[in-house]
Amino acid sequence: MRIKDDExxxxxxxxxxxxxxxxxxxxxxxxxxxxxADVSAATIYLYFENKDDMIKKxxxxxxxxxxxxxxxxxxxxxxxxxxxxxxxxxxYQYIVxxxxxxxxxxxxxxxxxxxxxxxxNKLDYCPTFESLFNRSKSSGxxxxxxxxxxxxxxxSPINHLAKKNKSSNKILTTSELIELFEASWRAISK
Length: 190
Fold this sequence. Notes:
Helix content: over 70%
Number of helices: 10
CATH topology of the largest domain: Tetracycline Repressor, domain 2
CATH superfamily of the largest domain: Tetracycline Repressor, domain 2
C-alpha cells in the first residue's frame, strides 16, 4: 500500500486550480493537470478515482481552508456585531491573499457537481457559521432569514469589490472596509 504524499497532492491541487481557472471544468483534463503538476497522469489516479473525485475533494479542501480562515483563536464567537466584523475582515483578507483559490471556489459554484457536493458536505467545511447564524437569529441580533441569504447579504459585496480591486491592484482602505461592512451589517441586522 502506498503512503499518501501530501506534497504531491498539494502540487496536484495547485495545478488543478490553475488549469480549471484558465480552461474551465469542461476544458480541464487529468493530463493537463498532471503536466502542470509535473507528475504522471497515473500518479493522480493513485490519489483520486477520477477528475470529478479530485475536483470535489479539492473544493472541500478549499472550502474548509476558507472556513477556518474566518475563525481563529482570537475570535469570540458570541453573537455580536464585533464577531461578525472580525469574521468579515478575515474573509476579505482570505480573498486578497488567496485569489486563485477563491476564483476556483467561485468557478465551482457554477459547476453541476456543486449541488451534490453541497448537499453531502456543507456541514463538513463550515459548521461554525450555521451555529453562529442560528444563535444570532435566536438572540434577535440579526434578521430571521435563511442562512444562505444572510451569508450572501454579508459577504457578496466584499467578494465583488475584492475581486474587482485585485484586478486593478487596488487595496481597499480601512475606512472603505468599515463603510462596506456597515452597509452589509445593516442588511442583516435587526
